[in-house]
Amino acid sequence: MPGMATDAGDQTMVPLSSEVVRDEPAVHPLRLGLRPPISGISISWSRGNLLRVASFRDHDAPDGGDGDVGGKVVEVRLGGRAIDGCGGGVDEARRRRIAYGSVPAFALLQGQRSSFAAVTRMSPYPSLRAEWWENVLDYSKHISSLLGDPKPLPNTVIDDPKTILNKVEEPTYLKAAWELLEIFYVDKQSLAWLPERLVDWLADYDCLLARESATTVHSNLVTLQKKLVSLQVVEDDPEYWEGVSQALAIGWLEIVVKLLRLHGSYQLDQLGDRETENGLVETVAVLVSTMPRMRPDLPPGKLGQCYKTKPDFVKAWEKWRDQINKLDCSAFWFQCGHRQTREGLKSLLHIMLGKVNNLISATGHWMELCISHFLYVRPFTMGLDGTYNLAQKCMQTKPISQAHMLTSLLIGILGENTEVVLAECSKAFGPWMVVHAMELLTAENTQAEALLHEERYNLGGISIVELNRLVYAQVLSSEALTWQIAPVYLASCPKQGFGLLDILLYMQPVQHQRVLLKSLEICRLYELESTSSTIMKIAGMYHWKHGRKGSGIFWLQQARDEIRLSRIAQQLFDFIGKSISDDSFKQWEGMIELLGSEVGTAGGLEFLHKYRDYKKFLQHIRDGIAVDVARQAVESLIQLMRSPSTPPRFWLPLLHDSLKLLDWRDRPLLNVPETNLLLSKLQELSMAKLRPDFYQIETSSQDLSSIRLALARNLGRAILEEGSLNVPNINPHGIHVREM
Questions:
Q1: Which PANTHER family match (predicted)?
Q2: Mind listing the pLDDT tens digit for each residue in 260-310?
């Protein structure tokens, strides 16, 4: 990026633009923290709107002795062009609110478009097209409300009669451009009363035109309002009559009447001497306030007579013009002794009669002149017929030094050039405007719809609509606070949207729980099951590698990753198998519970779950719980010894844990077959010591002797108990009964 050098000690970077702009260039201070001399600077883009600036010291420079380094890298957050194209118009917080607020309307319109396309394929009636126009209009109204409305600023309790302009917040260029697109592309009713819509638009945004023109009606009225405070006789000041003429030229009738009522002839002490003059002023004020206006309704406080149909409007307009002509030819003008009043009122009549010279002198900007032509020269204009040629003539009459964003946009609209309109929106307002404005351009224009939705080879087989949505989604994805809404726009791109959506979701950090849950929610909304599974696998392995074993297993289970869960189960089994003491088992008991017995049965988790249950039974026995629990522990022990999933190296620890069961005081808990099973397992262990692959368990000879003695004692007790049960008893009736 070219730059303009400043003083070495200033350490600032000043962007240099070849265009002539009114705003001062942005200056971003850089605190490098590096001793001079600096041999070079490297500038590159970082994430979002951050600029990475790397500075390097000269290798031959002497060392300062305090740990000087060879270079430093700093990041500069650029203020960025505001979303409405004017410096400082919209801050970052409001820009994000607009971005988030426009998502529901955009998503709703895309859903309605899909439903509309399905219905029109079955029943292509014109009425359906009208319904679609209403949907786009609702969408446009919602976006327009997000961009804000000029709010009146706090004013004094007592109204000043010399206040002709209400104080409101300065509007934004973005809102002005959006309303222009709505007027010409979406609102079909507005084309029938186009002059009135333009008058309303100019009343809200004429203050923005002052940046490209030396003078506008709004700026002149602001100056006049300041001057009225000190004027005693307003009708003697030429600027007063100029202000009245300018307000009338662009249809601000309320201001015209209010200014006329400030005329000195309305004062009580002068009514007798200036009766004719006051009558002429009041007559002109009445004519202004009764001007016919073709529009559906009039907002509160607006002057004029409203007509909804063209025939009624034409009749009223001709009658109103006849009244003006009669007044213009009246003999009362010779009785008016105040020259400034006579000339000023005559100028107002000529404006209402559509005299071009008066309109040119009463307007400052070419758009004001164009609207004055619509009002007084071509009042019956409907649609865009001839408006482009009229705009060109007005621009020649009122040339400007440099085309402004609104000027270029309006020329593109009047020329019915969709590509020019999109280019101006992109240049002045950025990708947000382009993406959302394309819905307006294609609302009632089949040619524009075909142009924007046509798949182009030079764009990789995608359309202009999809390309701009992808660009805007990329802008959203580059910021941590807006990436969540990028999927809405990517999902509306059938060619490349879902592929880029996968990449976007994979790029999100899985270590942050909220970000991870948000990514999974997006996958659920758009039915991206494969992507969701992959993200959960990535999260599981990340947590596992960083020591959060439980979280890792949880996410791998959610992803149904049987392969990795089996490997984890095998590692867990191998680790516990090295030392199956109570302490080591308690350390991993929670993870065994989390893994579940259905995962990795061959790897030993089935055995670990059974062993966990066995340990719980033994713990209850130590706590003094009844014999039933001891019998359940015996059944669990026998299942473990008979199960093929129990490795032989665990037999001896199991037998050692069963000593309390074998030495049960009241009666033997294990019968003869169960005791023989344990003895056979112990014998197999003794024989297995001779094999080279035998896994040696650390145990003492005393423990082995204790196990053998306990088994032998239990076997003897079991035989005696079963033998006593087999002794026949003789009942009183002499019948032999075998006790079971």
A1: FROUNT PROTEIN-RELATED, NUCLEAR PORE COMPLEX PROTEIN NUP85
A2: 888 888 777 666 667 888 888 888 899 999 999 888 888 888 888 888 888
Residue 27, pLDDT score: 63
DSSP 404: -
What is the mean predicted confidence (pLDDT) over 628-655?
A: 76
* Confidence band of 659 (pLDDT split at 50, 70, 90): confident
Q: Cβ(556)–Cβ(568) under 8 Å?
A: yes
444 DSSP 8-state letter = S
SS3 assignment for 655-692: HHHCHHHHCCCCCCCCCHHHHHHHHHHHHHHHHHCCCC
CA distance 647 to 293: 96
CB atoms within 10 A of CB 346: 17
- Is-contact 56 70, C-beta < 8 A? yes
Q: Which amino acid is at 266?
A: Y
The answer to whether residue 599 scores a pLDDT higher than 50 is: no
Distance, in Å, from the CA atom of 740 to the CA atom of 737, rounded to the nearest integer, reads 9
Residue 336 to residues 63, 224, 286, 361, 450, Cα–Cα distance (Å): 91, 25, 18, 24, 63
Tell me the two tokens of residue 578. 């090295």
Tens digit of each residue's pLDDT (9 = 90 or more) over 465-497: 889 999 999 888 888 888 999 999 999 888 888
Q: What DSSP string describes 319-335?
A: HHHHHHHHHHT-GGGGG
Looking at residues 221-244, what average pLDDT do you find?
A: 84
| Cα–Cα dist 311/64, whole Å | 89
Helix pair 582-595, 605-622: axis angle to 10 deg: 120
pTM of the model: 0.70
Q: CB within 8 A of 79, min separation 6: which ones?
A: 26, 28
**Rounded to a whole number, what is the distance in angstroms from the first to the last CA of the chain?**
100
Query: What's the confidence (pLDDT) of residue 6?
Result: 36
The pLDDT confidence band at residue 196, using thresholds 50, 70 and 90, is: confident
Which residue in 219, 251, 218, 209 sits closest to 351, CA to CA?
251
Phi-psi region of 63 (alpha: psi -120 to 50; beta: other; left: phi over 0): beta
Give CA separation, 201 vs 12, 58, 250, 399, 535, in Å. Answer: 41, 59, 11, 21, 50
Residue 164, φ and ψ in degrees, nearest 5: -105, -20
| Cis peptide leading into residue 37 (ω within 30°) | yes
Task: Give yes or no for a contact between 499 and 470, defined as CB atoms under 8 angstroms apart.
Answer: no
CA 131 – CA 141 distance, rounded (Å): 16
- Paired tokens of 425: 């929106």
Lookup result for tokens 């080279």? 692
Does residue 195 surpass a pLDDT of 70? yes
3-class DSSP state for residue 294?
A: strand
Q: Which residue, 239, 200, 199, is CA-closest to 223?
A: 239
Q: In 123-166, where does DSSP find H-type helix?
A: 126-146
CA 93 to chain centre: 12
Average pLDDT score over the chain: 76
Q: What is the pLDDT of residue 600?
A: 46
